[in-house]
Amino acid sequence: MRSRSAEERAVVFCRLARESGRPEIWTSLRDEADLLREAQEIDRAVAQGARLPLAGRLVAVKDNIDVGGLVTTAGSRSYAYLPEKDSTAVARLRAQGALVVGKTNLDQFATGLVGTRSPFGAVRNAWDRGRISGGSSSGSSVAVALGLVDFALGTDTAGSGRVPAALNGIWGVKPTRGRIPASGVVPACRSLDCVTVFSVDPILANQAVRTMFGPDGVDPLASRGIPVAPAARYRVVVPPPAELGDLAAGWAEAFQDTIAAFASAGVEVVERSIRPLLDAAALLYGGAFVAERYAAVGEHIRAHQDQIGDDLDPTVAAIVLGGSTPTAAELFADLDRLELLKLAALPIIADADAVLTPTTTRHPTLAEVDADPVGVNSQLGRFTNYANLLDMAALAFPAGTVHGLPFGAMLTGPAGSDDLLMVLAQLVPQTALDVFVVGAHLSGQPLNHELRQAGGTLVGQASTASCYRLYVLDARPSKPGLLRVAADAGESIRGEVWRVPEARFGTFVGGLPQPMCMGKVELAGGQQVEGFVCESVATEGVQDITGYGSWLAWLASRGQ
User: Fold this and answer.
1) Integer Cα distance of 120 and 214 in angstroms
2) Which CATH number fits domain 6-430: 3.40.50.80, 3.40.50.20, 3.40.50.11260, 3.90.1300.10?
3) Which residue, 322, 278, 272, 331, is CA-closest to 301?
């Protein structure tokens, strides 16, 4: 099959961005004419023999990373400025043919793990619009999970490139500190910030990261680092159950399944306390290190205090302004404490390759964060806050689902272990979900290509249990609605089961227009799978086609 040109991919993106119903993902989008013009230039270069490994790959950029000609806001309109040139990371990607489509929303000044602290709106999760996306790289993660772009750039200080990956069922790569220059990045904590990558494809994510590697002569903290060579036999450390803390229901069991998967892949698993890592994590917000956030944007917030509650998020403002109070003596005391914790942490992975943990602790709803914005946020960074303080690399990867939502796990290793972590994570086969479809995603129907492009494979024809009814919804074009009813009021409906990689499942869930949604569908043999269903309110006053037994039979009756 011929691969699509950069121009074709740009055209599709423009349509999907308009139709997705997710304006909160973006702070700005490229002008369509400008985007298509750049895509055409990429296509011409390729046709003339240019070697562009990322030709036509669509990339979204977190709006604290400069893209020449697009306003950088860092999540605050009062802070906005127009950069004349790309950041180093963006420039290196574009030099290899990547096509930047726009800037993505974020927790303001990259301060938060929730994705709700922005005047541009809370970014809703790709799988469940009532839940948070995670932050601060909220828009970037959801743009990837919904299939709008091939990969996206984020940043990570306390977990912002990993927590959103876990909550949206995708990969999040946080390189060793300094491997990617932070030139042209609005700092959160300048000495800790890392440019990160989100993707559903770990190979593509790794390619993008490696494209951005290396000093640029501008960022004094950038370095090549010393890569850690893969071992002949792999070993990972896992914390004892008591150190996992308060995980969401079902997550401890999902983590045990992840441990078992690594063991089955030949990885030696050693249970060992990670207490020094957790103690270091507490220093990030509980000590004087928050002063670096004030050094980054504190003066701007202080000069615009009249906009707190409007353009400036109150929670972010309180955190940043609080960074003005620690003394130099307190900072040096915390630095000394951190060095002692680094020493105590050395034995944890001295004879191992990485620490394996859940990426985060739970998946809150938007309402829960509204009710307790600081408390909920602080829980999410339990396993992520220590990595940059201790100069470690980390990789978040999909590890199944719990109650229909993504569960993510994470490998964290010493500086330079970036490639090793990627090798380790890919030793474990990625799981897939079975999805029952009854309408436009059936074989030969208009949207079937979406399943195939997401790596879906046809399992076979299937029928529901005899407790469903099928309706023609009031929509253009026509589409069916599958509704579960009482056992004595329904019939069996025919459709197909497709197997879809979990990392790409959000593409279908997040793009569903109301009243469509995903839910559990019971098949004739009693198996429960994911499936396209509809809300009962949508079936009032519309045609009931249950008697036809399937959507295709109804279409055939109409000569379609």
Assistant:
1) 33
2) 3.90.1300.10
3) 322
State the residue for tokens 């479809």. 437
Instruction: List active site positions.
Output: 62, 136, 160
Count CA within 13 A, CB hemisphere, residue 344.
15
Q: How far apart are CA 548 and CA 542, in angstroms?
A: 15
Type of residue found at 189: C
Count the helices and strands in the chain (H runs, E runs): 18, 19
Smallest Cα–Cα separation from 534: which of 553, 552, 550, 519?
519
Count Cβ atoms below 10 Å from residue 347 Cβ, excluding itself.
12
Contact 517, 534 (CB under 8 A): yes
Q: How far apart are CA 475 and CA 64, in angstroms?
A: 39
3-state helix, strand, coil in the chain (%, to 5): 40, 25, 40
Pairing outcome for strands 480-484 and 528-534: unpaired
Q: Give the rounded distance of the alpha carbon of 333 from its chain centre.
A: 35
Domain 433-557, CATH class in plain words? alpha beta
Between the CA atoms of 134, 138, 140 and 146, what dihedral angle is there, to the nearest 10 degrees?
70
Cα Rg of the chain, angstroms: 24
Q: What distance in Å separates the CA atoms of residue 215 and residue 178, rounded to the nearest whole number?
A: 8
User: By the 8 A CB rule, do 124 and 131 touch?
Assistant: yes
Structure tokens at 71: 């306003």
Segment 369-425, tens digit of pLDDT: 999 999 999 999 999 999 999 999 999 999 998 988 999 999 999 999 999 999 999
Least confident of 172-181, 267-276, 437-446, 512-521: 512-521
- Name the β-bridge partners of 518: 532
Q: Which helix (H) or strand (E) holds 299?
A: helix 291-303
* Tokens encoding 377: 């946020």
Spell out where 281-417 has E strands.
354-358, 392-402, 405-414
Domain boundaries, given as residue ranges, for the chain: 6-430, 433-557
pTM above 0.90, yes or no: no
Are 438 and 424 in contact by the 8 Å Cβ rule? The answer is: no
Helix (H, G, I), strand (E, B) or coil at 370: helix
- Is residue 416 a contact partner of residue 225, using CB atoms and an 8 Å limit? yes
If you search the block for the tokens 């190979």, which residue do you land on? 203
d(CA 423, CA 418): 9
- Compute the distance between CA of residue 464 and CA of residue 445 in angstroms, rounded to an integer: 20
Closest alpha carbon to 317 in 76, 136, 77: 76
For residue 342, the 8-state DSSP code is H
Contact, 533 vs 521, CB < 8 A?
A: yes
Relative to beta strand 58-62, strand 99-104 is: parallel
Tell me the pLDDT tens digit for each residue of 168-190.
Answer: 999 999 999 999 999 999 999 99
